[in-house]
Specification:
Oligomer: single chain
Strand content: 25-35%
Number of helices: 12
Helix content: 25-40%
Number of strands: 17
Largest sheet: 9 strands, mixed
Low-confidence stretches: none
Radius of gyration: 20 Å
Strand order of the largest sheet: 16-15-14-13-7-12-11-8-17
Shape: globular
């Protein structure tokens, strides 16, 4: 917990995704962007002006040496997460690192260990856990709205359409497994899915997966794929399929993905009908119980809102000491789930989560 009424935040990495993180600042926020760092000096300076920051840097070490900065957000390509997080923790700066936590369980473990040794706060921003329809669905499940949950199924379609304009440099590293940590569908976007599966129905103990590949513009993409798992809680199962349908129009302000979830319990069913995309006009959240279907139209469902809510959740953690999604330990659990699924597909066997060191 920091003894200041208002946080001064340093942003490290000012690319396209930083637009979403910036939603946590401004009117009503208890924090402001004090400094911006990007390897491209023009981008760093332009972002500093856009966000009202006092300073811009091209070397993250210079930003970390700035005593006026209370904490940092790391929004960098995945291969840099460990390096910059360890440096920030060593400098005594609390860290929010953009998902996925890192490229592997080993990197993530070193980050978690360093945070514990330095007694400095580290959290992973996984914005799906702050998306209001998911948060409300979890509340319903926990309060028994569908009785004892039995299964969940998550479906993701990567479609086509104009969507969000993302610079080519941002796509290049995501398509390089060494820089990204894995493929763009099952590893990069997959961290969201593995995370929300555990968020809704709890820890997982076993997983199996098929991860195929398809070619788009002479590039191999890690889809279609199917993952199935067994939760630690008795008689709870889950599955996730991801499909590439580039000729299928998925309207979206953001990435042209369609994500939807169904959770079936002994007394009812919950559907979350969209997240980053808007493939259908169905309400974002629906509950079926006792023959009655209740549609939740008024719930906030703009995907960008999850970044605003998630950012301010972290600010509350630093200022008030309140619990925060996701701790380093939770981020590491999601990484174990992801790595187990990839190992299961590679070795064609059921993999236990406790195999992941």
């Amino acid at each position: 917990r920091l003894t200041t009424p208002h946080l001064r935040i340093g942003i490290i990495g000012a690319g396209r995704s930083a637009d979403l993180h910036a939603l946590a600042y401004g009117a009503g926020a208890r924090a402001s962007i004090c400094a911006v760092c990007d390897a491209d000096a023009e981008i760093a300076a332009a972002r500093a002006t856009e966000w009202g920051a006092e300073r811009s840097y091209t070397d993250y070490r210079d930003l970390l040496a700035d005593d006026r900065i209370d904490a940092v957000e790391i929004i960098l390509p995945h291969h840099l997460h460990e390096e910059v997080t360890l440096a920030a923790l060593a400098a005594g700066k609390p860290v929010s690192v953009q998902k996925p936590m890192a490229r592997s369980v080993a990197e993530s473990q070193r980050m978690a260990d360093a945070a514990a040794a330095a007694d400095v706060d580290l959290r992973v921003l996984e914005n799906f856990r702050h998306y209001p329809p998911f948060v409300e669905a979890k509340r319903m499940i926990d309060e028994g709205a569908i009785g004892e949950p039995a299964t969940q199924h998550i479906s993701v379609i990567g479609g086509g359409g104009p969507g969000w304009e993302v610079p080519r440099r941002a796509w290049r590293w995501r398509l390089d497994a060494d820089l990204c940590g894995g493929g763009p569908c099952m590893f990069d976007h997959g961290y969201h899915i593995f995370s929300i599966a555990q968020y809704l129905l709890g820890p997982v103990e076993e997983v199996f997966a098929w991860i195929l590949t398809s070619e788009i513009a002479r590039i191999e993409i890690d889809r279609p794929a199917l993952v199935a798992w067994k939760h630690t809680a008795r008689n709870r199962l889950g599955s996730w399929d991801t499909t590439g349908s580039p000729q299928l129009l998925v309207p979206s302000k953001y990435y042209t993905n369609d994500e939807r979830v169904q959770i079936v319990g002994e007394k009812g069913i919950i559907w979350i009908n969209h997240c980053s995309g808007l493939l259908t006009s169905a309400p974002p959240l629906v509950l079926y119980r006792d023959g009655v279907t209740t549609e939740y139209h008024a719930i906030e469902s703009d995907w960008g809102a999850s970044f605003r809510i998630g950012g301010r959740d972290w600010h509350g953690r630093l200022l008030d000491g309140t619990p925060c999604e996701m701790t380093a330990a939770e981020g590491l659990d999601v990484m174990r789930f992801s790595e187990a699924a990839h190992r299961a597909a590679a070795e064609r066997r059921v993999v236990r989560i406790d195999e992941m060191a």
